[in-house]
Amino acid sequence: MAKPDSPKLVPRGRKVKILATLGPASRSPEMIAKLMRAGADAFRVNMSHGDHETHAATITAIRAVEKDLGRSVAVLCDLQGPKLRVGQFKDGKAMIRHGSHFTLDRDPTPGDETRVCLPHPELFGVLTKGQRLLIDDGKLRLRVIRADADAILCTAEVGGVISDRKGVNVPDAVVPVAAMTEKDRRDLAFAVAQGADWIALSFVQRPEDVAEARKLMGGHGALMAKIEKPAAVDRLDEIIELSDGIMVARGDLGVELNPEEVPPLQKRIVAATRRSGKPVVVATQMLESMIESPAPTRAEVSDVANAVYDGADAVMLSAETASGAWPEEAVTIMHRIAAQVEADPGYAERVHFTEVLPDATTADALAQACGAIAATVEVAGIIVFTGSGSTARRVARERPGAPMLVLTPSQKTARRLALLWGAHAIQTRDIGSFEEMIAKGKRMALRNGFGTAGSRLIALAGVPFGVPGSTNLLHVVRLTGDELSRHTT
User: Fold this and answer.
1) How confident is the model at residue 122, as a pLDDT?
2) Within its chain, how far is the Cα of 370 from the centroid?
3) pLDDT tens digits, residue range 315-364?
4) 186 catalytically annotated
5) What is the phi-psi region of residue 110: left when phi exceeds 0, alpha when psi lies from -120 to 50, beta otherwise?
């Protein structure tokens, strides 16, 4: 990290965060720096592609750029999860005709237009008549006629070309497979060793999946559960409770559900996670056309804007930055969309459509008071002193109108908060007294552009200082001309 108290990048001027995926088009130190300057707040390392050596070099590059630019940045390692796939075909592919019968069985013999091996014995015991099987991201749709211990006879409701190792989605059943494969366990151990700030768990179906991953993490990093299975939606509140954050992974969710079901479900997941005070990320196909085009479609712009209006903590770019032709432009466009939405006079009302009630604690009451004060009098910023980040999450849950400057002695906390709505987190030396808190808060606010002479600031902290969970102090201060003069000389 850069020397404490010496940031080189000014606050973004927006509250929603941008999570950019790194890959062949963007993993160089030069491009990572460009993406950060364009607006990226956090980087996703997709463990589905590449090897540990490549990922280690990418994370090293992120940390070097982080130090050079002086802004805390989050690294999220995204685990692949269990992939269900068909076997191989005699000619590498086959044509399944509409309305024809097709069998998935346990015979490893290469398949043809009538059958293929399904090398997942756990599926044969859970599928029943009438359930669906979706092949190749839903391009082919099969309906189960009969299922037994060795074969699943289906009718092809939507036929087409099927080829080797295409993915299989099972939307109508809870598949008895763990959310983590042996590869995921190796990847998780690697991510922990690399100091990943967030680890994303794919294909979560049940709370137990989250509990297993958290146990393996051993207290290192934060856990983000990806909601991409209908079964997870049925137990959403329990999964949120056990997670540190949630990702609305619309890729597989959109395959397993009807398209019209995804938008209201996205809003439901965002609202439920916001009420918990935990970060929620909206992901997949946000600016998909920018993989090849330097400009997005109007529908994509509206999609990003909709997530920002809903109060999502972060929006994510996938292939747009990982392998696309215009990674820097994609981040720039996403930044511009978010900034424009947040400048809309109706934004504050829209973002508060979700009713968020404080818990019955002093810390939550003070966090709510911060929002109320900022809505009543003009406030240049809310300064939050925190060790674990919990106070910052409480304030962010209220979606206050004023920006939030988070000061923490913990590098890990500063990095993790890079995905939290409205938080500009800086690692700085700890404080020891009320007077030091006020002086440091004013100094850091001026240094980071949170107000000028005459501006009001809200300071939120806990006494005694340095004790986790002791948030009990709210103080409103005003910057003076003398302080501004001392800062600039």
Assistant:
1) 87
2) 26
3) 999 999 999 999 999 999 999 999 999 999 999 999 999 988 888 899 99
4) no
5) beta
Q: Which ranges in the chain are annotated with CATH 2.40.33.10?
A: 93-169
284 is catalytic: yes
Superfamily of domain 362-488: Pyruvate kinase, C-terminal domain (3.40.1380.20)
Domain with CATH 3.40.1380.20 in the chain: 362-488
Residue of 34, 37, 85, 185 marked catalytic: 85
**Distance from C-alpha of 20 to C-alpha of 317, rounded to nearest angstrom:** 5
Active-site hit among 14, 17, 44, 278: 44
- Fold designation for 17-81+178-351: TIM Barrel (3.20.20)
- CB distance 284 to 312 below 8 Å: no
Given the residues 58, 103, 273, 284, the one annotated as active site: 284
pLDDT per residue as tens digits for the range 222-252: 999 999 999 999 999 999 999 999 999 998 8
**Model-level pTM greater than 0.90?**
yes
Query: What's the pLDDT at 1?
Result: 47
The Cα-based distances of 395 to 150, 164, 269, 422 in angstroms read 55, 50, 20, 9
Phi-psi region of 135 (alpha: psi -120 to 50; beta: other; left: phi over 0): beta
63 labelled catalytic: no
Decide if 489 is catalytic.
Answer: no
Residues 131-183 pLDDT 10s? 999 999 899 999 999 999 999 999 999 999 999 999 999 999 888 888 899 99
Q: How far apart are CA 276 and CA 281, in angstroms?
A: 14
CATH number corresponding to 93-169:
2.40.33.10
Q: Please name which of 173, 195, 162 lies closest in space to residue 122, comparing C-alpha atoms.
A: 173
Amino acid found at 71: R
* Residue 232 tokens, joined: 């997870």
